[in-house]
Amino acid sequence: MELVTPGFGLIFWSTITFLLLVFILGKFAWKPILSAIHEREKSIEEALHAAERARDDMKNLQSEHEKLLRQAKAERDLILKEAKETRDKVVSDAQKTAITEANAIMARANEEIKREREQAFKELRKEVAEIAVQAATIILKGQLSDKEKQGALVDAYIKETKLN
Questions:
Q1: Are 58 and 64 in contact (CB under 8 A)?
Q2: Structural domain boundaries enclosing 36
Q3: What's the pTM value of the predicted model, to 2 decimals?
Q4: Greatest extent of the chain over all pairs of C-alpha atoms, in Å
Q5: In the chain, how many domains are there?
Q6: 161 falls within a domain
Q7: How far apart are CA 27 and CA 20, in angstroms?
Q8: Burial category of 153 from C-beta neighbours within 10 Å (exposed 0-12, middle 13-18, buried 19 and up)
Q9: How far apart are CA 128 and CA 121, in angstroms?
Q10: Which residues contact 150 (CB under 8 A, 6 or more apart)?
């Protein structure tokens, strides 16, 4: 049983060795180990805070990105709307210009037709007058050759002038 029960000296020296080991470890090893553990704990905590800040920054960046996308889409829509309005205005202006030019061409053509018609009527009157003068000349020559016809013609003219 002696092997199972330790002696007083063994317990005494084991306790002193243990206490001396605890003292030496406490003096030289635990402080650096504990300070290293505390530093590691702080660095992990700072890393977690940095990760949280980075996540918040990412959320902010994402919201800013979405905001910029919305603004870009709104600007694109505005540009497209302005382009359509400009296109419609250009088409409308071109149509108005075409109509105005067509009306001007029609007016000029009508004026030209009117002038040509008047010119044709003048020429027709002139030719009719010439034909009438020629016919009258021929008729008068035929009537003036005979003295009785000349007298009847003069009497007819005198009666006509009195009536008017």
A1: no
A2: 9-122
A3: 0.41
A4: 200
A5: 1
A6: no
A7: 10
A8: middle
A9: 10
A10: 143, 144
